[in-house]
Amino acid sequence: MDRRNFIKLAGGGVVVAATTSHLTGCSLSSAYPAEAIEIWHGPQENADPRRWALAYAITAPNPHNLQPWIADLHEPNVITIRTDPTRVLPNTDPFGRQILIGHGAFLELLVIALAQKGFSAEVALWPEGELSTQLQQWDQRPIARISLQANGAKDPLFSQILQRHTPKTDFDTSKAVDATALQQLLKTTETTPGIRAGGTVDAEKLSPYRELCWQAAQVELLTPRTVMESIHLTRVGPAEILQHRDGISLNSLPIRIMDTLGLFDRKNPPEKDSQAYKAMMSRYQGFSQSAMGFIWLSGTNHRSDQIQAGRAYVRMQLRATELGIGVHPLSQALQEFPEMQAHYATAHQITLKRAAPKSADDETVQMFCRLGYTLKPASATPRRTLEKFIKV
Ligand SMILES: Cc1cc2nc3c(=O)[nH]c(=O)nc-3n(C[C@H](O)[C@H](O)[C@H](O)COP(=O)(O)O)c2cc1C
């Protein structure tokens, strides 16, 4: 006889799931499969410090967990970083700005990990010139050439690398983030040249920022090509998560059952009022409304500034990890696609008090994040195996 599960869906409905064919044999736990998150246990001791440090670098935060990094190790004592031009988000990140922020985060973790092994890293950005502003023209030119030198000074943030996770749950609205903690986070960005930071944890002032997040999320979710970009990168259930080990990994039982029952259409945007639609909307509404503070990073908008923003961002998130504060980027309002234009302008107005940038020389908000305390610890997200990132 079929084993039947009655499951309450996020949107409130109840489904009967005939689980025998698709779900038996799988763990019903919502934890990600252990193999997909093995990187978070840290690397094996390895003769080559570059590989050891790269194992830390690939835990970097990055948009949609695309993990676009390629590390070329053919030169002794040198790591040359390139990007994989197929791992981009042409609809929500049409200029590759966010992808390069993810490269900056990767680079910073690499430098911190090399220092832990006693090396200082001499970083040359864009040794063969910058990548084009046009994604379609991205090629194999290096983003950075890192040469290992003796006498690296250890960085205390190293201890937080494997603890850092992006909290993608509602924050505890009974717990405010205090102004001193915000100042500590802002301070971490001071060591990154070209990057400025601001933020607020003042309860009286949060409402326009929360509203911006929610309004901008709706634009992304209701614009067919932008929501489809996320849906195509969504991995549901242990088998898919293990197969890809990237993208947006969803492993909770209600979502797996919805998927099994064909209620999660991967070919079309969710229909209005469908369970998938309601689940998606309520997730972002919860993120926005439970934000207990906001922090943003800005700089001019040349390719190197984007890398610098990523370096500053991950340092700030590592420090937040140490302080037990959740930092969650909500990037929708910063996305440079036409339908987002009004929210892009508002984002610049309410953070920098200035109009949206018109050129790369203008101050640009590079990261916009909500702050708060999680009700339970954030999960580690999958990463591909180290060898997938290495070219020798
Ligand atoms: C430039 C950038 C933009 C991001 N934007 C968002 C976002 O809009 N929404 C979100 O949930 N996470 C966002 N993130 C977080 C990533 O989704 C997250 O880093 C990735 O899934 C890996 O998870 P981890 O940080 O827990 O390792 C962003 C990260 C970066 C670096």
Structure in words:
- With 392 residues, the protein is α+β, with helices and mostly antiparallel strands.
- The protein has 2 domains: 34-161 and 379-391, NADH Oxidase, CATH 3.40.109.10; 163-372, 3-Layer(aba) Sandwich (NADH Oxidase).
- It contains 10 helices and 13 strands.
- The strands form 4 sheets. It has a 5-stranded mixed beta sheet, with helices on one face. Strands 7-10-12-11 form a 4-stranded antiparallel beta sheet.
- The longest helix has 21 residues, at 303-323.
- The protein is globular.
- Residues 1-22 have low confidence and may be disordered.
- The structure holds flavin mononucleotide (FMN).
- The site of flavin mononucleotide has 17 residues, from helix 2.
- Residues 61-65, 98, 101-102, 105, 165-166, 168, 329-332, 381 line the site of flavin mononucleotide.
- The chain-level structural class is alpha+beta
Strand content: 15-25%
Q: In the CATH scheme, what's the topology name of the largest domain? A: NADH Oxidase
* Alpha-carbon distance between the two ends: 54 Å
Strand order of the largest sheet: 5-6-4-3-13
Q: Specify the CATH class of the largest domain.
A: Alpha Beta
CATH superfamily of the largest domain: NADH Oxidase
Estimate the helix proportion, in percent.
25-40%
Assigned CATH architecture of the largest domain: 3-Layer(aba) Sandwich
The structural domain count equals 2
Element-by-element helix/strand order: EEHEEHEEHEHHEHEHHEHEHEE
Task: Give short descriptive properties of this protein.
17% strand, 392 residues, 5-stranded mixed beta sheet, single chain, 33% helix, globular, 13 strands, binds flavin mononucleotide, disordered N terminus, 2 domains, NADH Oxidase
